[in-house]
Each structure stands twice: as C-alpha cells, then as structure tokens.
Amino acid sequence: MLKKIKKVTYKDIGIVNFVSSKRARRINISIKPFKGIIVKVPLNVSFKRAKKFVLSKNRWLSKHLPKMKIKEHNSIQLNKNNPITKEKIINKIIKRTIELADRYNFKFRNLKIKDQSTIWGSCSPKNNINLNRKLVHLPDHLIDYVILHELTHTLEKNHSQKFWGKLGKFVKNPKKMNKELKRFPIV
To answer: How much is the pTM?
Structure first.
C-alpha cells in the first residue's frame, strides 16, 4: 500500500510525486508548473502498479514536460518584471473593465478582484464579474481578452458557438487568444 506521498526519480523523466487518494478511481497523472509530475493513486492500487503506469506514460511525459517548462519560464519572467501593486490593479484591471464595458455597452452588476489559483475570471448568473488580480502579469492584449471574455458572458452564459461569435465582435480571433492565454499559468 502506498503511503500518503512518495517521491521517485526516474532517469528520463525526473521527480515524480505519487499521492494516495481516497477520491481517485483510477491512476491519474498530471503535470503542473512548479509542482512537477503528480500521480494520484487510488487506495486499492499498489505502488508497484503505479510505478509501472508512469513508465507506460514515458512518451506522453516527454511530450508535455517541455510545455510545462515554458509555462514556468513565462510565469517567472512575468512575476519578476511585473509585481502586483494596488495601482496596477486599479489601472490595468478595474479601469480597463469599465472602459471596455462602456465602449461596447456591456452591463454588469459588480466587479470583484480576487486572488484565484485556477481561473483568470468568471461571470455569475447575476452578471457579477470576478477577475484574477494576477491578470496584471499578462500582456495588455490578453488582459483585454479576459475582460471581454467575461463581459461577453453577461450576454451568453456558456461557451457555445453563439458565445464565440459574440466574443468575435469584440476580439479578433478569440479562439487564438484563448490558446495564447493557456501558455501563461496562474501562479
């Protein structure tokens, strides 16, 4: 039986963190910036089997590890060159949201700036906009993209073709922008 957390170093892969999980139904492998390779293992699965699983995913890991390194590098560069200050939050996020909402006639109820670890922004069913304070680390065009993405959710509450069509009226090539945004981890 696997203990709570176990680290194993593989020659071609590096350090792998094995974590036993009550909630896991099967072995799950993920790569997270600054956390590395994490393997969640159900309680009823042996450590030997989990190690074999990782070896079977060597090709997948070799393909995705470089992408994680790029995300880590981008995040380090952005954080190093761009500390978060109250002034930046006001100018780059709050004022910009109001400017874009006015320019495109969006109506939202409240705007909150949060310190989130998994999302750049969200829009509630009541049109409350939440934006991540870490947006200040992004290039300006991506800050605008996230703001307009969430403002568009005041009109369309899902990610249907209709949503992307509406967003396309305010952002040139929104799917390309979304793909570019994914290069920047929220750290």
So the answer is: 0.62
